[in-house]
Write a structure and sequence with these properties.
Layout lengths: L4 H21 L6 E7 L9 E2 L5 H13 L3 E2 L7 H4 L3 E4 L2 E8 L1
Parallel strand pairs: 2-4
Antiparallel strand pairs: 1-3, 1-5, 4-5
């Protein structure tokens, strides 16, 4: 059986599409955010103010605080402030933020 150019291109495109779907389903995204309330910041650490997060970050953070469960990050850029400094000041409390793949 001989495959012609269009058939090969169609097969390759289908394989790329399936690989993308499988990668996304297996956690190939930006990761998950977990938050934990802490009593105080460790010596020398800073915290980002909740108001300084972008709207996607604020929604993700509030979802994690409300549910107490890890929450999927909407995109790679949403991780930045949750990784460094790794703490958020929110509603009079301090939360340690952890991002996992």
């Amino acid at each position: 059986m001989e495959l012609r150019g269009r058939t090969v291109i169609g097969i390759v495109c289908a394989l790329v599409a399936v690989a993308g779907l499988v990668g996304g389903a297996l956690g190939g995204g930006a990761g998950t955010l977990t938050v934990e309330r802490v009593d105080e910041l460790p010596q020398g650490q800073g915290a980002v103010a909740f108001a300084n997060l972008d709207p996607d970050q604020r929604a993700t953070f509030e979802n994690a605080v409300t549910t107490g469960e890890p929450v999927q990050l909407p995109n790679e850029a949403a991780r930045n402030e949750f990784v460094d400094p790794g703490y958020v000041r929110y509603d009079g409390s301090i939360y340690r933020t952890t991002v996992s793949s």
